[in-house]
Amino acid sequence: MATLLPKPVDPEEAAAKQNSATKTEGIFFPGSDLDEVAKHFIGNTHRYRENIIIPKMYGVVQIKTNEEKLVEAAFESCAFKSFMSCVLGYGLGAAIGLFSSSVNPSIADPMAGDKQQTAREIFREMRAATHSYGKNFAVIGAVFAAVECAIESKRGVSDWKNGTYAGAVTGGLIGLRAGVKAGIIGAAGFAAFSTVIDYYMRHR
Q: Residue 57: how many CA atoms within 13 Å on its side-chain side?
C-alpha cells in the first residue's frame, strides 16, 4: 500500500507567498499602493526599544544605568539639599561668629575692679559665639532649602518665585518667636532679600 508523503516546501515559493500576503494586507495603507511608498520613506518598522530617545550632544552619548539614576536622584532630593544647606550654613555662621567675637572681645576694665580674663576664658567665649552663630545659620539654611525644594517640586517650575516664597516662609517662622508683628516683618524682609539675591544670581 503506497504512502502519500507531503510535498516538500520550496523556500522561494514560501517567501513569494509571504511577500504577496504582506503586499495585500499592507502595513500603513492596507490594500493600497501607497503602502510601498510609505515603507520606502519610513523604512523598517521593526525597531529595537522605540521608547528611548537619546539627544544629540557633544561627545559620546551614554545611557545612564539604574545605579547612576539612583545616585543622581539622591543628590537632587530635598533631604540632601537641606542637609547640605545645614552644613554650609553652620560653616558660614561659625566663620561670622569667630570674626565678630575676635573683633569685639569682652575686655575687662581694670579701673572698675573687673577680673582680667584668661586666655582659656576668651577662647571659651569665642567658641560659644561661634557655635551660636553656626547653629542659627544652620537652621535658617536647612529650613530655607527644604521649603524651596518643596515649593519647586509642587510647582514644577524653577524660577525666582520659589526663592521668594521660601524666604517669606523662613522669615515668618523665625520672626514668629518674637510675635506676629515680628513674623510679618521677618517674612517681608527675608522674601525681599531672597528675591534680590535670586535675581542677581540669575541675571549676572
A: 8
Residue closest to 151 by CA, chosen among 194, 89, 202, 91:
194
Domain ranges of the chain: 75-104+116-154, 158-203
* Whole-angstrom distance, CA of residue 125 vs CA of residue 22: 89
- Per residue in 131-144, pLDDT tens? 999 999 999 999 99
Tell me the three cell numbers of residue 132.
551660636
Say whether pTM exceeds 0.85. Answer: no
C-alpha span between 154 and 78 (Å, rounded): 12
Asked if 134 contacts 91 with a C-beta cutoff of 8 angstroms, the reply is yes
Set of cell numbers at residue 127 = 567658641
Task: Identify the pLDDT of residue 147.
Answer: 93
CB atoms under 10 Å from CB of 160, counted, come to 16
Tell me which H or E stretch contains 91: helix 78-103
